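Slide 14.
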Amino acid sequence: KFSQPAPPNGKKMNLDPNRKRNRRSLNKNKRNKFNIIGENISIVGINAAGLTSKLESFDKLLYDIKPSIFILQETKRRIGAPKIKAKNIENYQVFELRRERASEEGGKGLSGGGLAVGALHDLQPVLVRQGDDEVECITIEVKAGSTRIRCVNGYGPQMGDTQKRKEMFWKYLDREVVEANYEDLGLVIEIDSNCWAGNNLIP
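Slide 15: predicted structure.
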């Protein structure tokens, strides 16, 4: 769910009171802080589950938290969609991976997917590489002081996807780890893996 910090009165923001399903806001986000050579970097990662209906809430999140970097999965924005419209997004360089077609979601025929990652202009963000409908990943690089940091955003294949598609996704991530180690870069991987790892991998 995509939610925002509660306002001072403690009430949740309802973005569209006429549509119950759009009342989800942006509170369940993951925020991590790092201190890199005196530079404070904060990162917010969220599965948006559709960004268009939650732009007001997203803008409030940017205003309240002021993250250095935001990473979004499942924006559900297709190629040809307009730029993300939010007042506080002007402080960020934004990179998107938009879908060319509706996601098959493991053969269920549902729409989904789409990625966005934004970083403050002061971090000098640049696009390193991005995937496509088959490999939903995007990688940017930022600078914090003298440290270069790769930020990887990804939306993993569904349980019912082909083995080939699953392997392509994890090979993309593996490449990022290898390159970061080889080039002595910082590395942040923020993904919705859809992996259903189970207790064998995650106790």
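Speaker note: The CA atoms of residues 125 and 142 lie 4 Å apart.
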